[in-house]
Amino acid sequence: MKNVSRKVPKITVMVVEDDEETLQILTLGCLSQGYVVIPCASGKEALGKLSRSVAVIILDLGLPDMDGLRLLREILREAPWLPCLILTANDSARSAVDCIKAGARDYFTKPVDLEQLFEVVSTVTSDIAPGFPQAAARPHTPPVSSHWKSEAGRECDALALTAAATSAPLLISGEDGTGRMTTARMVHSASAHHDGPLQIFNASDPQYFSLDTALFGRAGGGEEGPPSRGLFHKCGQGTLVIKDVEKLPLPLQSKLQKALVSGRYQEQGSNTFIRLNCRIICITSMNPKEETASGRLSRNLWFALRNMHIRQPSLKSRIEDLPLFCARFLTEFCVANHAPRPEIPSSTMELLLHHHWPGNLDELRYCIETACRSSKGPIITASNFPQHLWDSASHVEDTRQPVVGSARIEEVERASLVAALSLCGGNRRLVAQRLGVSLRTIYYMLHRHQISPPKSRQPKAPPCSHE
Question: What separation in angstroms does the CA of 442 have from each of 402, 413, 449?
């Protein structure tokens, strides 16, 4: 197994696995990579040993004393930034999907490919400082670093964790499809309200006959009919997310602002004030300053929300994170469809990086799922993606591509492979490193393009590395 350990000392990996032989193999593998290991044979033992020093967790779903999904949620409730890697049997695909949605970083099907597993461990811990605050760090504080590569992504996570440490009203603005609800869920799970429900209210949903009653409730009696509890009451100590807040009628925006400022509200038809116990998160796809200037958003409501404001970055503004999102969407799709996960080589990733992504993450997810369905081999090529990605990339000059202009995607891929073979002296392993794919993928590409590489020799140029 290739050694991918780094020179950074004292990176601690917790391994949670009830099978004694598998636990021993994973423990020895961690030690061989230079990690400190905390082996745990049960969920109860893992929760008891969770500490500030743990940098990543390898978690088996099939534990004898606790459901793996429940354990994952409890771990992420204590340390929402902690990378968790899931181990699952072939018949546990549904549970793996739930774990990914709950916040797991990646999943691996048993028997585990140890080289692939530790490459991921190395990646998720590459920018984590040892000893950053974890479970023992209540109240919640932002981690030293985030797994995002972009400054915008790291800043967004830091603001979310800062917001989670308070119960103040929160505004999340940003384009559709950027992950605003994901940020809202992150704030909820990391806050003091995490034991309560997370309720979502869409102000533009036509199903609500009375928005006032839906939010605040109705006291009832007489001609008003029976009482009706609103979401403020139903949320209890949890979190209420109000989507498209600017679409609430202005009188209702004023009523909401008064509730946020005073911490109490009145049901429709009642003169009695009720304590507001839930946390309020408002979401908008519009620019709140422009909405306020146009009169669609109450000025007083904007003043009540602007002190805790997260601007969700678009995918274009955090394009460095696109490979991470691709890996996540690939994982979710392949687990849900019981399919092996294909790879996206560097040449294809360049196509995605050059697209402007007006649909943000929703568009990227659709494109990844489309490519997975049309791919017939272990790699996803540019031809597997929708045509509009090719059209947008054709106008972008990429000097790193050996073939430009009107060349077909297959020709670009073949030329990239031939160039890499020449630079790396025919060494297939170095070619795989240079192109950012596995050795298995290189053999598949050689077969598909009918290329017979020269006998491996030491290249005259410096060793190949990721570009």
Answer: 18, 11, 11
The pLDDT tens digits of the residues spanning 156-182 come to: 988 998 899 889 999 999 999 999 999
Count CA within 13 A, CB hemisphere, residue 278: 25
Only one residue has tokens 């695909």, namely 93
Pair (180, 134) in one structural domain = no
- Out of 111, 146, 181, pick the residue that ends a domain: 146
Question: What distance in Å separates the CA atoms of residue 170 and residue 223, rounded to the nearest whole number?
Answer: 37
d(Cα 174, Cα 159) in Å, to the nearest integer? 14
The model's pTM: 0.62
**Residue where one domain finishes, among candidates 146, 165, 198:** 146
> Could you give the CA distance from residue 268 to residue 233 in angstroms, rounded to a whole number?
13
Whether the Cβ atoms of residue 93 and residue 336 lie closer than 8 Å to each other: yes
Backbone angles phi, psi at 172, to 5 degrees: -120, 115
CATH code where residue 249 lies: 3.40.50.300
Say which residues have a Cβ less than 8 Å from residue 422's Cβ, sequence separation at least 6. Answer: none
For the sheet with 84-88, list strands across it: 36-40, 12-16, 54-60, 84-88, 106-109
pLDDT grade for 393, boundaries at 50, 70 and 90: low
- Return the structure tokens found at 350: 């360049």
For residue 136, what pLDDT is reported? Answer: 35
| Domain, as residue range, for 37 | 1-146
Number of domains within the chain: 2
pLDDT at 64 over 90: no
Instruction: Tell me whether strands 12-16 and 54-60 are parallel, antiparallel or unpaired.
Output: parallel
Q: How many angstroms separate the CA atoms of 65 and 79, rounded?
A: 21
